[in-house]
Amino acid sequence: MKQAVILAGGKGTRLQERLNGLPKPLVDIAGKPLLEHQILLLKRFGYSEVLLLVNHRAEYIENYCASNNNWGIGIHCINEGVARGTAGAIFSAFDLLHEEFLVVYGDTMLEVDLQRFEEFHHSYPNADATLFVHPNDHPHDSDLVEINSTSLITAFHPYPHKEGSYFQNLVNAALYCLKRDALKPWKDTPGLLDFGKDIFPAMLGQWQILRAYNSPEYIKDCGTPKRLDKVTSDYVSGRIERSGLYRKQKAVFIDRDGVINKEVSHLNSPQQFELLPNVGKAIKRLTDSEFRTVVVTNQPVVARGECSPEALQEIHNKMESLLGQEGAYVDRIYYCPHHPDKGFEGEVTELKIQCDCRKPNIGMVKQASTELNIDTAESWIVGDTSVDMLTGERAGLHSILVETGYAGLDGRYGVVPNFIVPDLNAAAAFILDDFPKLIALCEKIGKQVNTRDFVFIGGLSRSGKSNFAGCLRHSLNHNGKRAVILQIDRWLHNEVDRGDGVEGRYNTKELADILSVLTKRKEAIVLELPIYDKLNRRVSISGSRLQIEPDDIVIVEGTIALLFADNLGVQNSHKWFVEIDENQRSERVLKEYRLRGFSDEEAQSILITRQQDELPFIMKSAEKASIRVALHIGEVTAPQITFQQQNSL
Ligand SMILES: [Zn+2]
Prior knowledge:
The protein is of the alpha/beta class and 649 residues long.
């Protein structure tokens, strides 16, 4: 029989205006007292005995429970008589405690997968207590918990913190699994006793084992009218219920160097760690949304012996502190300390191994997905290298390449990102604003696309057509219509082998052959995909294969896509054209060439050539399109999408 204790003695002085004379645990949240929400959660997870430690206006609570027949479980109200603090209240009821019990504070609204929490507590057999902890959006003025790599609590850092000190962003959220016997040394101590201030630090002082369960699930106190309103609106919107880890979660995996902080080769000290512009704002947007944020970073500096795990922890503490100053936090940080190549001076030999966690392996994504119950198909990875993009492809995440750090020009793997945006802030805007809007549009126009159809998506370079194609594929897949994308840019010729004009840049013959085979296919076809290496301006082998089933929809995306549509002679082909404001497009083209190492003049001259040979030619092909999608990109990247219909659908 599982036992829980609810600390229900609070007066709720700050909530008086909302209580109408009721004690704090009975404050209304969307038509039900807070206490009832808590009891129903406990009941759901098999707690059949609940001790209610009551004090202020105890009779109201007793009567409320009685009028609900104790919800069919064993509920015992114990009146402490005097206020003794959180721990003191429990000592008053010491003889009624089970060997192990759960503690819930009477002023918190929570939705926690209690079974996961208990399993975590039991996974370390000697744990005397497990505290539910989470990052918050104001760590600089919070009491913080420090843990080691096995989640053992090693220190408490009460507020105020010393100027210039960096800590992990972990806060005691007021939910505990406790062993009764571990509390024995203090059970007869008189007076007010608080778990956070008195008992946990004392337990640590006696070498007891305290563990921290770090979870992004909902747990918030409702002790002021403002907080109560926030909790109520979160409850009504369903956000609280969706946070329970028994439900699948959506996540954004974020690479560290070159995405969050400035790329510094072999970064090994907090002094070198500097956030990129707008990163705090970006992560705060994700934090405030319902996406879980997970940092996944390769740190071979540890294996090389250039950065100790302790120094790496300090670097991450600085990252969390800097983010915290902007109200942002990440739910988890995973790093791979390994490196596969042995035989260097100063290396840590045992870390020089082939591991599963070093990206593009997906060990870190898998671990996070288990720990946070992540639905990878609804999740994202944001990175600056082909390593991150391949990790995303292997793990089944949507991948977003940012043009900070290496900007995808690391040349390691031949992989095409699903989406490309300027930086992390634009990535957050894309995930939260643009993607849902584009999906809504694709849901609408995707209705006319049936299995086995071809969709040709043309547009000038950097007009947003590949991001659009990615959204279309997602939307079609979501509706049970499997779709694949052929990016025509994969078939660019080597710089030296190019013919005239736009078409001369591509291996159009091979592409036409492939499309012709695809139109006639009766069984699955596996394509070995080439890739054009933009940095070295030559064709290479990507190693990626694409399996195309007979019923798959084939999305052909690229500047010259619409030229192929006519030659193909297939019945069900759709011709769509994507465009953006020409000034914005020019800016994007210039930026891309600058990133690829061209000078301003060279970039300008390429742009002018492109405007002469590509623009009129491609815009003429737009006349063939049945749908023109105008993506108006706003201040950051919030586009207003208009839908143009040229001919009848
Ligand atoms: Zn590893």
